[in-house]
């Protein structure tokens, strides 16, 4: 999407050198799988050796309200013989046929990987032939791991949806209150805390991409009237292209925190009105916001005295770098630092506006520096992903997972209450006062000058004993004599 950038920004991006190991922790294939895997009724086929299916998508707590096919792993399981003899494309076609006959999914997504891209397997040609032969969509996803980082894979997945899925089906029930939610992954089912709010306003989510999505919903997503972008790092290219092709305006918002949730609901309603919806929805939106905010603030009142002034370090990125920070500041928590890793330029600008102190913003922090920061008690708790939890535990600092592996939903009004509750539980867990106590062997008084050491005490005791006790052999011989 370089066409939307000026010359200086283009040159800056192109001149940036590649960093060795930049794909560690998530390659392009991994990023594409993360975006497309939550499409729950689709079969996801990995054209690769068996090990490539062991990517990190299964660690993410994405939830489905229905189909379970997405939880089944499909791979062509290429071997050395297949690579040498050129059997890859034939094996891929056979796997597509087997999936179609056994599971009859509405579509099959085929992913290229490093091995199959390097040997030149033409998955697009195979997918076209299979689609004609079997009469169902077979979507090629060209995102081999060596192409780049996980974020690039996210965008390549969005391109695959644009090229092969979105716009291929026409809905028979399109209405003036249809919207798309982009970049929402329904982690721990948290979108299910937001959707009832939209339902009460009469707003229909035409497609949530990708959280708890269905293939046909995404195929007809081009008929939505407006869109909300949740994670711009992942799918901003999709939002811009849909606005360009189908005139679907979008805004970047967040469902983390009370104020941001309310603002997102307002912006959705305003966009719909601009696209022809009845202005009456604005009044209904304000009434719903007033009701839900009153309930949420009443629940949070019990936690405010316990969390007032507590210092939080956010070691995350993307939309959470500013949305979670803003949400916590609403209840009196102090943000002592937040990471801007994986954040867009717009995200970073919002962080500056919220924190108003550049010293609290960092791109990334080395584990040793992170440990020193926490060990010196500059933060009362750290909110991050699972990769840095052991740094916090080693520094004897409370930690809470707010990334994709979490087990609690934090979106919407109820999600904010749950987030505060989890922070309170972590901070006031009695284990922290126990582990910070000195070990028993560290509590013994230091040896003063002039007091004999343990070794000298032993020697003195031995010298003071009777001679008969010094040598059993000697005492025995004396007795015999």
Structure description:
By secondary structure, the chain is of the alpha/beta class. The chain folds into 3 domains: 24-164, Nitrogenase molybdenum iron protein domain (Rossmann fold, 3-Layer(aba) Sandwich), CATH 3.40.50; 178-292, Nitrogenase MoFe cofactor biosynthesis protein NifE, C-terminal (Rossmann fold); 304-435, Nitrogenase MoFe cofactor biosynthesis protein NifE, C-terminal (Rossmann fold, 3-Layer(aba) Sandwich), CATH 3.40.50.12380. Helices cover 45% and strands 11% of the residues. The protein contains 21 helices and 13 strands. It has helices at residues 7-14, 28-36, 80-85, 88-103, 114-118, 123-134, 150-164, 195-200, 215-219, 232-246, 258-274, 280-300, 304-307, 320-329, 345-355, 367-375, 389-394, 412-427, 431-435, 454-464, 472-480; strands at residues 43-46, 74-75, 108-111, 138-141, 178-184, 204-210, 226-229, 250-252, 311-315, 334-339, 361-362, 381-384, 399-401. The strands form 3 sheets. It has a 5-stranded parallel β-sheet. It has a 4-stranded parallel β-sheet with strand order 2-1-3-4, with helices on both faces. Helix 4 packs parallel to helix 6, helix 11 (258-274) runs antiparallel to helix 12 and helix 14 packs parallel to helix 15. The longest helix has 21 residues, at 280-300. The chain is globular. The N and C termini lie far apart (106 Å). The model is unreliable at 447-451 and 453-481 (pLDDT under 50). This is Nitrogenase iron-molybdenum cofactor biosynthesis protein NifE. Residues 450-481 are annotated as: Disordered.
